Amino acid sequence: MSCLNSLISSHVSPIGDHFRLSKVGIGKFPIRIQNLHRFSASLNVEPLISTDTTKLGFGDSKEIMAAEAKLIVGTYGRVPVVLASGKGCILYDVEGKEYLDMASGIAVNALGHGDEDWVNAVTEQANILTHVSNVYYSVPQLELAKRLVDGSFADRVFFSNSGTEANEAAIKFARKYQRFSHPDEKQPATEFISFTNSFHGRTMGALALTSKQKYRSPFEPVMPGVSFLEYGNIEAAKEAIQRGKTAAVFVEPIQGEGGIYSATKEFLQSLRDACDAAGALLVFDEVQCGLGRTGYLWAHEIYGVFPDIMTLAKPLAGGLPIGAVLMTEKVASAVNYGDHGSTFAGSPLVCNAAVAVFDKVTKPGFLASVTKKGEYLKELLSQKLGGNKHVKEVRGTGLIVGVELDVSASPLVDACRSSGLLILTAGKGNVVRIVPPLVISEQEIDLGVNILSKCMSAIDES
């Protein structure tokens, strides 16, 4: 019996082959489980949206996965779930099984699934104008840019289609800035500094800034001129950031893929000071931790330290592909027509979706609610898991939270998925990464943590 089933079995009364609607008391709040059918090894829930795959020529999940293996390049180690529909923080697979989503598409679905305002923004814009390219002006792009500039340190924005594209653009802008600022030097600063446990993307420039050797080695030589320093090591950074050599320093204020590690104010301030002294640019990668994830609009606001460039992506368009590079006028003045570009970036459709996300995240009380729910999540995790011998630390800010284990987290993540909870791994595979939609409720947090707690036995069983 799955962990979720063990939580609810005592609250559901069988009636023939079906199960009666019941309330389940978990934590402080009741969870209503609907449409339970043939209660056995897994919980099957009738989806809100049709999951009929026969119209596409496919049948059940096994048939779909077999077809995928023949058609799609094998770059993804997918888990054996075929998701078909979702609403709020709940997802359904093609068989109708229900999952509580505490992964949100790797920190992308900030408003959950099927948010009414987001859906309206997308459908209304799709009926008006979807794409025109950057040969022409469009109003939604300007509307989004104005919001990003007004709500941040930045003076200007460049749009891209993903986080790795945003970081590629930042690399080019940093190099161009150094050349623009030192026109008389034959060889201006061109090198970059990144940090241990960093992740900046998978395209060749961003990959060069990513510390994990397993990501880089199959594609070497990657972009040269990158040095990796220990994350948080102030003295090493001061020594390494040099005038005439260092073009920019790339750092995540909170590392997501790296294991949910948070910088200190002292560390980020030391980078700011060293960059200023050396004429280098400071780039904050907030692709995962930005736009409300921490309970602050931007993660660097926690520390009161501001960059020259900030890269954004994941949550910005609520599930549609987008990236953005925010920068000061000092940096933007070095960039000319033709220095960079993108066919699809900043399209009316995607930007209108992003405007809806930005407007909701910046509504009064929204960020405070993220902070409150994040504190509740960490408190509950500490209460439920803190006594387990395998749990080393619960850490994070807002709704980007990690549970570090002394063993691989994969068996636990797999058990949770089988029990109806979607979470992720991070770090060296020993960190449980919890990044739910920012609209998650406390009762859903209760349910998620209870499933996680019940499934901890999977670690020893593995």
UniProtKB/TrEMBL annotation:
It is found in: Mitochondrion. GO terms for cellular component: chloroplast stroma; mitochondrion. It is an enzyme of class 2 (transferase). Its EC number is 2.6.1.11. It catalyses: N(2)-acetyl-L-ornithine + 2-oxoglutarate = N-acetyl-L-glutamate 5-semialdehyde + L-glutamate. Pfam families: Aminotran_3 (PF00202). Its cofactor is pyridoxal 5'-phosphate. Pathway: Amino-acid biosynthesis; L-arginine biosynthesis; N(2)-acetyl-L-ornithine from L-glutamate: step 4/4. SUPFAM superfamilies: PLP-dependent transferases. Coiled coil: none annotated. The keyword Disulfide bond does not apply. One of its GO terms (biological process) is L-arginine biosynthetic process. Its main location: mitochondrion. Keywords: Amino-acid biosynthesis, Aminotransferase, Arginine biosynthesis, Mitochondrion, Pyridoxal phosphate, Transferase, Transit peptide. GO terms for molecular function: identical protein binding; N2-acetyl-L-ornithine:2-oxoglutarate 5-aminotransferase activity; pyridoxal phosphate binding. Belongs to the class-III pyridoxal-phosphate-dependent aminotransferase family. PANTHER family: ACETYLORNITHINE AMINOTRANSFERASE, MITOCHONDRIAL, AMINOTRANSFERASE CLASS III. This is acetylornithine transaminase.
